[in-house]
Specification:
The chain is elongated. By secondary structure, it is mainly α. The strands form 2 sheets. A two-stranded antiparallel ribbon has the order 1-3. It has a two-stranded antiparallel ribbon with strand order 2-4. It is built from 3 helices and 4 strands. It has one domain. The termini are far apart.
């Protein structure tokens, strides 16, 4: 049986790498410049308001992995339906061997399990951090 390959699109790969680099640089700059100002801002606030603000920020921060995991689940379910991984029409950033039938199903189930685990960890982090912050009130 001949192995089918999906070849990486160089333009798509460059686009993904540019977006990733931009996000990393943006977060590092924001963290570096904003951390001291944020601390000063929190010190001026009442404790209850500061705890609420930090809780909202933590929810936003931990929502990002949840959204990424939902996208992974969507791709994995599409792959389960097609019995092919990666699904038809998927762009890849490196040359990828196409898997069919049982191998595709196993890969999809593993992706779904990992995505659900990431969602669970994110929700637990939100709950535990908000409960920990409530101790300061």
């Amino acid at each position: 049986m001949c192995e089918e390959m999906i070849y990486a699109d160089p333009d798509y790969k460059k686009k993904v790498l540019r977006i990733t680099a931009f996000v990393v640089v943006f977060v590092l700059i924001l963290a570096g410049l904003g951390f001291n100002n944020f601390q000063l801002y929190l010190k001026q606030m009442e404790t209850v308001s500061a705890v609420r603000l930090i809780t909202v920020l933590l929810v936003i921060i931990f929502a990002v992995p949840c959204l990424f995991s939902i996208w992974i689940i969507k791709v994995a379910l599409h792959s389960l339906k097609e019995k092919r991984f990666p699904p038809t029409g998927t762009k890849v950033i490196r040359d990828t061997k196409v898997l069919y039938d049982d191998k595709a199903r196993i890969r999809s189930v593993i992706l779904i399990a990992l995505a659900l685990f990431i969602i669970e960890l994110s929700v637990m982090a939100i709950v535990f951090s908000s409960r920990l912050l409530l101790l300061f009130i």
